[in-house]
Recover the amino acids of this structure.
């Protein structure tokens, strides 16, 4: 009997769905893209239990006739393209004809829609890809898609979903991108009957940036504008030295489609090489308008990556446009029209009622370490402003100053559990109000008790902001706002990390931000103090991220190598 078989239609449908629908955020992305392609001006998204139980997307677009609605639920159906040649002239966000049937294959779905030409609308109920019921119904123009019990028939995929808050953060990340790329459309999101996102349509991109990232960031943005032949680049980039620890706030849109592009990332890095420190990244919202035949958007199942036909030209064009923008600083005065912001700060209070995170104990590898003695190590020198050379007990040690300082700060922070917050924290001269993205705000709200254990006093403020009232004493002399933002950026860069984020994870990230950096010059007394504090640590051999803090070369090994 042969081994090669033709899969049944149900299995084929589930495989296709798996390529497009990874999690609830994938459903929201596909449905909102359909709404935007349908020329909707108002889009409402409702979420229950992070989208696992219910996702409802309502729009006021052109809607569909009964015949089109039925066809839209069939595999490979689309109104976006009609032949292979059309693949080279795609101007819509969706085109593959996989979204609705893929969603329907792994859920219990209802499609309600009405076009302007029809007197009544249609409601179609679908379960596991099979149409169960269809009827005419009175509806306003537009489309509503209700997705219930996502992955009910693929339990293995359910196991890979994160907590409802984390899945909600994924959804909010997509809504943020849509609000920036289509800022002339209103977006509103509800979860558990509470509004969690609200973008009011505007023709002003800078106003949209303020609604997502905050007015303070918007006021520090420089305009980017360049045009060459058929290609146009425009948008905004943060003025130096404003930067972030991750690329989380680098937004690229090609023909108004959000994309990830290594090419565009490197172009930004080269343009900012003398303006932003190594390992730091600007905030940017940049659009590339390019003829469809010069870009391939069909290289990724979710259309997140693109391939340019003339990559070198695009690279140079973007790099030069950014370099020109930052070399000619523009005084950007920004204010939101007809909007009022609260300037009063609520009184300090203990934060209650946030879900506790489970602390997971990571297995920490250790390197051999000699027993501490009273004989003090002798500092021999400093290599590349990074490694401290130490002679001690017939051994030569090379100490990584950054990793060593990380370990020292990490253990000090964790010892705060035995101290009172007031005993171990410094009050901020002025309480800091930090505006976060909706996705960051949802995740950070879960970690407030953990921040408090480390000596931070952080409170939620409004729908998208936090107040930092005090910080660990180790932050004295540091830019507290920059450090706190960097910690949040790194912790929220990949929401999958939520499953392992506990006290030690936040302490490790904090210690990394506070530690001496590779390349920092140290005086001999500073090196001596660093080594002394390292040797007094409970686990001095590795940094919080598992890297060695030092390497040992026994003199006996040196003698053997020199053939003595």
């Amino acid at each position: 009997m042969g081994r090669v078989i033709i899969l049944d239609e149900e299995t084929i449908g589930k495989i296709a769905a798996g390529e497009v629908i990874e999690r609830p955020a994938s459903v929201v992305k596909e449905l909102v893209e359909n709404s935007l392609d349908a020329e909707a001006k108002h889009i409402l998204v409702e979420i229950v239990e992070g989208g696992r139980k219910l996702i409802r997307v309502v729009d006021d677009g052109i809607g569909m006739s009964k015949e089109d609605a039925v066809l839209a639920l069939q595999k490979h159906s689309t109104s976006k393209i009609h032949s292979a040649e059309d693949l080279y002239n795609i101007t819509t966000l969706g085109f593959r004809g996989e979204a609705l049937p893929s969603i329907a294959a792994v859920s219990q779905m209802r499609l309600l829609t009405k076009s302007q030409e029809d007197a009544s609308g249609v409601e179609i109920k679908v379960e596991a890809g099979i149409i169960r019921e269809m009827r005419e119904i009175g509806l306003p123009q537009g489309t509503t898609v209700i997705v219930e019990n996502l992955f009910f028939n693929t339990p293995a995929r359910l196991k890979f979903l994160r907590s409802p808050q984390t899945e909600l953060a994924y959804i909010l990340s997509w809504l943020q991108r849509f609000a920036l790329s289509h800022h002339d459309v209103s977006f509103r999101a509800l979860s558990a009957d509470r509004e969690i996102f609200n973008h009011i349509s505007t023709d002003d991109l800078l106003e949209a940036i303020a609604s997502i990232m905050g007015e303070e960031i918007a006021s520090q943005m420089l305009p980017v504008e360049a045009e060459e032949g058929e290609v146009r680049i425009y948008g905004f980039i943060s003025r130096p030295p404003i930067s972030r620890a991750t690329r989380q706030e680098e937004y690229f849109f090609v023909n108004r489609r959000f994309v990830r592009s290594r090419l565009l990332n490197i172009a930004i890095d080269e343009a900012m090489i003398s303006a932003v420190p190594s390992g730091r990244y600007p905030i940017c919202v940049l659009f590339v308008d390019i003829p469809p035949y010069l870009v391939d958007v069909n290289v990724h199942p979710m259309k997140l990556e693109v391939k340019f036909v003339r990559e070198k030209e695009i690279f140079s064009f973007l790099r030069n446009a950014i370099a020109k923008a930052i070399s000619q600083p523009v005084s950007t005065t920004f204010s939101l029209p007809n909007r009022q912001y609260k300037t009063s700060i609520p009184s300090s209070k203990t934060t209650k009622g946030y879900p506790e995170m489970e602390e997971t104990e990571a297995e920490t590898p250790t390197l051999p370490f000699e027993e501490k003695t009273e004989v003090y190590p002798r500092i021999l020198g400093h290599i590349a402003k990074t490694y401290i050379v130490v002679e001690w007990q017939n051994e030569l040690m090379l100490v990584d100053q950054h990793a060593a300082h990380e370990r020292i700060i990490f253990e000090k922070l964790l010892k705060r559990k035995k101290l009172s917050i007031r005993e171990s924290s410094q009050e901020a001269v002025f309480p800091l109000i930090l505006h976060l993205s909706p996705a960051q705000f949802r995740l950070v709200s879960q970690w407030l008790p953990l921040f408090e254990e480390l000596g931070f006093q952080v409170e939620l403020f409004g729908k998208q902001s936090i107040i930092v009232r005090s910080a660990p004493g180790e932050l004295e002399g540091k830019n507290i706002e920059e450090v706190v933002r960097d910690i949040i950026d790194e912790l929220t860069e990949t929401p999958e990390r939520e499953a392992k984020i506990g006290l030690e994870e936040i302490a490790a990230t904090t210690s990394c931000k506070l530690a001496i950096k590779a390349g920092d010059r140290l005086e001999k007394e500073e090196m001596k103090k660093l080594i002394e504090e390292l040797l007094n640590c409970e686990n001095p051999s590795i940094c919080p991220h598992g890297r060695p803090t030092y390497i040992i070369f026994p003199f006996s090994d040196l003698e053997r190598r020199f053939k003595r």
Q: What stands out?
A: The longest strand covers residues 425-435.
